[in-house]
Amino acid sequence: MMKNVARLERAGFVTTYVVEGNGPPVLLIHGVGARLDAWDGVVAALGARFTTIRFDLRGHGESSKPPGPYSAELFADDARRLLDHLRIGRCGVAGHSLGAIVALRLALDAPDRVERLALLSAVAGRTEEERQRVLERLAMVEHGIPGEHFRRSLPRWFSDEFRRANPELLEQYAARNMENDPRAYAAAYRVLATTDLGEEAARVRVPTLIVTGEGDIGSNPRMARLLHAWIRASQLEILPGLRHSILIEAPTIVARLLARFFDGTADASPD
Description:
By secondary structure, the chain is of the alpha/beta class. The chain has a single domain, classed as 3-Layer(aba) Sandwich (Rossmann fold). The chain has helices at residues 40-46, 72-85, 98-109, 128-143, 148-157, 160-165, 167-178, 182-194, 221-230, 246-249, 251-263; strands spanning 6-10, 13-21, 25-29, 51-55, 91-96, 114-120, 208-213, 234-239. The radius of gyration is 17 Å and the shape is globular.
């Protein structure tokens, strides 16, 4: 565990978190099956220009792992309680994959807490075929051989070039994936698989950055364009050559986009 990890305890429930850097606060929310260190490369590339707040979602990392069920609302409430604990009233919020669902839910449920919103590799407006595919993946997580979903997902998550160049890194991630609590992982994956905030996103009024890889199948450019159409004050970035795991494969690119956006030097504006 990282040396500067802190713990928020309430009613026997623990949320582990890390606060680093200086400047405007930005909350970073990781994806399903990951943990707060998924943002390591991005935070390193950002330097100290922001105060970054990262935390392990319930069911992940060193946070408490109740068996579920979980919901986007529950995850978002955990995030809000952490901001309360840190006495942060309003901040930038960025989420990746499941974290993007949580970030969007937070912006919808507590709009007074979100100054700017970044949705990375976000799901929205799944077609029936896409719903069936993700439900098949959920069944694999819930009932399949441990680690099978991870192994099958690597081609969806990383480019071919990255996989060829980083076999040892991917083995490390596979080992970390096996450390996930099976029930908690399945409960969190069910939120990703069954939550589609869809046109609710049209209620978002804060400047929003939408980013996805051009080769991302599960959170594809069509979905990103839908979000861009629904969220009036938004800007869209489709990253060439990348797939789903943009935090790991392209942290410098992601950090550059986030820095410009949260600095306000790349304001999102209506079309």
